[in-house]
Amino acid sequence: MKKDLISIADVSKDDINQIFKWAAIFKRGKRRGFNRLLAGKSLGMIFEKPSSRTRISFEVAMHQMGGYVIYLGEDQTQLGKRESVADVARTASRYLDGVVLRTFSHQGILEFAKFASIPVINGLSDCCHPCQVLADIFTFIEKRGKFSDKAGFGLKGKKVTFLGDGNNVACSWVWGAAKIGLNLILSSPSQYQIDGSLISRANKIARENGGFIELESNPEKAVRSADLIYTDVWASMGQEEEKEKRREIFSPYQVNDKLVSLANSESLVMHCLPAHRGEEITDSVIDGKQSVVWDEAENRLHVQKAVLYLLLKEIQSP
Ligand code: CP
Ligand code: NVA
User: Fold this and answer.
1) Cβ(236) to ligand 2 under 6 A?
2) Active-site residue list
3) Is the pTM higher than 0.85?
């Protein structure tokens, strides 16, 4: 049966282990010996929003594994406008071996997956960004944990503080932290906080795995003794007109030198990118010695290779 990657909420711990195991193998091996793994496979990329990292890393991943990519931007497929999402999904399933979707509506991805007979990967929706957060956690393990430790990857007791907008990336962090058993503190202005019922569902799983998820609206308290500080833009794609209003509301949550100095002296700083420098993060922090944003961006490639390999390898073209 086909598998999708739509939200980390649906990914089992075993599957996360497999993804990280293969990502580490791909990273160690760089390009050697893997260039026929997905030979003859074709990946569609249907994107309603711009992208640099997601598009480049998926395209290069397919190329390095011998596969082919068809990129369909905003003006092409026009999901749900030119024809129904279900009909695009049915058609695409007759040509492709997998599809990455970047949509405004998460519902659109769920609808696509329902009618597709091929694996569907969420490349960012209004709900979540699973590929990003898998690469983030992989980077955290690489820097502060152990790949050999199946139960928690050596990150037990580590504290992650997410500052800023409780949007798609934060939402995937909630599920990622829950599955790995991290201590996640979310710090956002009250009207931009992640839905409380989602937090309590995820917190149950986090506790079973030895971690917890908490809200702390005061950013200075939230970063205290953090091992990883994470932020995302204050105005996401599609929210551009709210930029000015948000800039004012979010300003206490800016990741700057003063805030970073309150965390562990060894704390890492991550950002999914693109960064709005001078807004949610300052130049001195993103370019500073605690920042690992470029390793984090690179790891998108290795982790997505693992995702593609695991999802596409068994699937036969119709
Ligand atoms: N982080 C991320 O997904 O970047 P892009 O929007 O450039 O793909
Ligand atoms: N929250 C951002 C993430 C970009 C990778 C957005 O949705 O635009």
Assistant:
1) yes
2) 102, 129, 132, 232, 272, 300
3) yes
